[in-house]
Amino acid sequence: MNLKVKLSGHYYQFKSVKEVLAKANEQKSGDQLAGIGAANAQERIAAKVVLSQLTLSDLYNHPAVDYDQDEVTRIIIDDLDTRVYSQIAAWTVTQLREWLLAPDTTNEMIHQISRGLTSEMIAAVCKLMTNLDLITAAAKIINEKTANTTIGRPGTFSSRLQPNHPTDNLSGIMASTMEGLSMGIGDAVIGLNPVSDTVSSVTNILNAFDRFVTRWQVPTQTCVLAHVTTQMAAIEKGAPSGLIFQSIAGSQKANTAFGIDAHLIDSANKLGQQALKNSGPNVMYFETGQGSELSANANFDADQVTMEARCYGFARHYDPFIVNTVVGFIGPEYLYDAKQVTRAGLEDHFMGKLSGLAMGCDVCYTNHMQADQNDIENLALLLANAGCTYIMGVPQADDVMLNYQSTGYQETAAIRQLLNKRPIAEFDQWLEKMGISMNGRLTDRAGDATLFLERELIK
Amino acid sequence: MIITNKHLTELVPPMIHKLPVDQTGAIIDITAENLQDKLLVTNPRNRSAYFGLKQTTPARLGMGRVGTRYRTASVLRLRADHAAAQDSVWQEVPETFVRSMNMLPLQSSCRDESDYLTRPDHGRKLTPAAVATVKSQLPTHPTVLIAVGDGLSSRAITANVAQVIPAIKRGLAHEAISVGKIPFIKYCRVGIEDQLGDLTHADVVCLLIGERPGLVTPKSMSAYVAYRPTVGMPEARRTVISNIHPGGIHANDAGADIATLIVEMLTHQASGLALKQQLVVK
Fold first, then answer.
1. What pLDDT, in 10s, does the model give residues B114-128?
2. Which of A262, A293, B36, B195 to pair with B186, CA 20 to 30 A apart?
3. Is the pLDDT confidence value at A454 over 80?
4. What is the structure's pLDDT at B6?
């Protein structure tokens, strides 16, 4: 293992694989805040050169957090297919990059290699990829997952309907839901971030969703994104949920800050198999995002891309229905501006896809970040070209509960039309039946929430 | 000028009214419009019911579409609201305001706004010069120290502080507690009140600070109040009164609430979670 390199006449001697991984990252304010980023542009490239020559076994042997110390590491290592890994252990990261980009490397072949890759290997190859590399490689990978409907099929582009409300008002939540559905939004999931994390409130919202979805026979899944323990308590008492949600992180210590561990998620997954309104087999929904480990002081001097890759290594253990990064929510101390958010969105999506997940993205920003709606539209379109499974649908992109901006209903509609993509097939057929779309195009009726009031008024 | 003989399609503009002008001849302020009174959906099935739906949520519903995209009016309004939020982050509290409030100007270790946004640790620490100023100009062992910090919104400070501080003072005067000189900290994070606690040995420190602006308002301020705060203490020792802005908790009411809270902290010699538990026990 060689950690020394000469670049443009200067020698660079790195001390560890961890240091190489951190300094090989594209510039991120979070890595600078952690004090682990490259000191300048040349040191960054020197680290990339060293990384390009490391073997996959070098990365296997140097996880970001020790095996004995961390259950996330143990899950990633123990889940590895050793027959696959032994074939590729001697590959350099360069070889992995070029193998992924080679035209004769198919989706099936990538699925096979994925079982032999640890999260550190996935992070490493990500760091050698340019933005267009990340798009090209991710676009090859098809990850289909099935709940009531199957997400991730080629030619589809899905959306989560996010009808958040500042006081969890049921009428207000349903108003946003109706307008979203009338725009063809919600085929991934109708999922609300609640203000109140209580069993009764979560149950009320799940009941409201269930009544609506049953009455209008909407082929999708529903979810209230409370803490996993709150959802489990509600579901055990019979609340009708379609998925079980939880935010996850890339180290055991950071997961502790979220109030979870592997055992708890395992219990949630088991409960989900039995007690959800979901024909399965995929029942979990996870969210991630670069920087959450550092903010919990649980990054173990590893960079935020590597820690993010480990989230996906942890997630895939539970074979979730959907996973998305909430890429721009964390703030400028981790991702400073639109350039860094764009890079992070493409990295996360690629790493999630290579980990075997039906990967989506909450393409978003906060008001103290150097980004605006144009940047978010750009990233959404880049991701859609990379085969991103779904994005969010928030009324005109303005989340009035979480106080940040994401993608609006119109973004999914525009991207589907531009790239000739369709919603999930059953949902697409439902939209046609409702007269909202025809042959994949929105009709004049689309975008009118009162479409769903008609029957109620006639009654 | 070219005049073509080719057959021309008739160019029909979409039916969109121009924005009205006010009495000065200026185009009206689009941010002053209540979005809940605005419906841009073309030919909705049930117009009055749509307004009913909009009353149930501040979400931007019924903003219509042109093809798959937004209407011009709704794009401009979103951008205007975002611009107000952005500018509130990047604009500084004017020195004239700090002077007019007779506050003592200090600065955290942040070099500039960009350093402030990326280095929360710098924003929690005063410069050595500021430490010297605190030591020489603020009294030690006061009952209460009120401090103001710009935080993530300058407009939160200029919109609320001039009313909140007199209201706090009025509330404390009932208990014969006086308030001394008030420092203003530029590039301020919440944790700086812990350092102020260590430097002054105040019984209670109350920091008024601008919150991260949302699109609904860029003027939201919070009060972070702690009993004998000290560097390194757990976050659970802070009590927060948030959402102080003209559309939320009004400055006068917030001031009275803060004064009551300070008195409770002095009575129970506790703040944050510990105070909450003591009040529940009672």
1. 999 999 999 999 999
2. A293
3. no
4. 78
pLDDT for B282 beyond 90: no
Q: Which of residues 107-126 of A touch B (CB under 8 A)?
A: none
Say if the Cβ atoms of A398 and B215 lie within 8 Å: yes
Domain membership flag for residue A458: no
| Distance between B210 CA and the closest CA of chain A, angstroms | 12
Of A123, A140, A157, the position where a domain reaches its end is A140
User: Cα distance from A58 to chain B (closest Cα, Å)?
Assistant: 33
Domain presence at residue A98:
yes
Kindly state whether residues A52 and A109 are assigned to the same domain: yes
C-alpha separations of A157 from A350, A381, B104, B146, B193 in Å: 16, 11, 56, 53, 48
A36 and A102 assigned to the same domain:
yes
Q: Assess: ipTM above 0.90.
A: yes
pLDDT attached to residue A457 = 45
Which of A366, A397, A453 lies closest to B49 in CB terms?
Answer: A453
d(CA A286, CA A306): 18
Per-residue pLDDT band at A459 (split at 50, 70, 90): very low
Compute the distance between CA of residue B165 and CA of residue B153 in angstroms, rounded to an integer.
18
Segment B237-260 mean pLDDT: 92
Q: How many CB atoms lie within 10 A of CB B107?
A: 16
Q: How far is A399 from chain B (nearest CA, A)?
A: 7
What is the tens place of the pLDDT at every residue in B156-212?
999 999 999 999 999 999 999 999 999 999 999 999 999 999 999 999 999 999 998
Q: Who contacts B202 (Cβ-Cβ below 8 Å, separation ≥6)?
A: B141, B142, B143, B144, B145, B196, B228
Binding site for substrate: residue ranges of A?
A: 160-162, 193, 287, 362
* Whether residue A131 is found in the same domain as residue A168: no
**B215 vs A contacts (CB less than 8 Å):** 367, 398, 400, 403, 405
Give me the number of domains chain B comprises: 1
Cα distance between the two ends of chain B: 88
Residue A458 has pLDDT above 60, yes or no: no
**Tell me, what CATH number does B128's domain have?**
3.40.50.11240
The span from the CA of A175 to the CA of A203, in Å, is: 18
- Contact: B62, A449; criterion CB under 8 Å: yes
Using CA coordinates, name the residue in chain B closest to A415: B68
Mean pLDDT of chain A: 97
User: A380: domain range?
Assistant: 145-451
Average confidence (pLDDT) over A434-452? 97
Average pLDDT over residues B131-137: 97
Residue range A253-265: mean pLDDT, rounded: 95
Is the CB of A163 less than 8 angstroms away from the CB of B59?
Answer: yes
Put simply, the chain A residues between 393 and 452 with a CB less than 8 A from any chain B CB are 394-398, 400, 403, 405, 408, 410, 413-414, 416-417, 442, 444, 446-451
Cross-chain Cβ contact B118/A33 below 8 Å:
yes
d(CA B142, CA B172): 13
Which residues, numbered 41 to 100 in chain A, qualify as contacts with chain B under a Cβ-Cβ cut-off of 8 Å? none
Q: Is the pLDDT of residue B214 over 90?
A: no
Give the number of domains in chain A: 2
* Contact yes or no for A408/A176 (Cβ under 8 A): no
Closest residue to B58, CB basis, from A166, A336, A413: A166
Assign B55 to helix, strand or coil: helix
CATH of the domain at A304: 3.20.20.70
How far are the Cα atoms of A150, A268, A360, A427 from residue A283, in angstroms, in the given order? 12, 9, 16, 18
Residue A455 has pLDDT above 70, yes or no: no
Confidence (pLDDT) at B2: 75
Residue A186, SS3?
coil
Whether A447 has a pLDDT exceeding 70, the answer reads yes
> Using a CB-CB distance cutoff of 8 angstroms, which residues of chain A are in contact with residue B120?
33, 333
Same domain, A291 and A156: yes
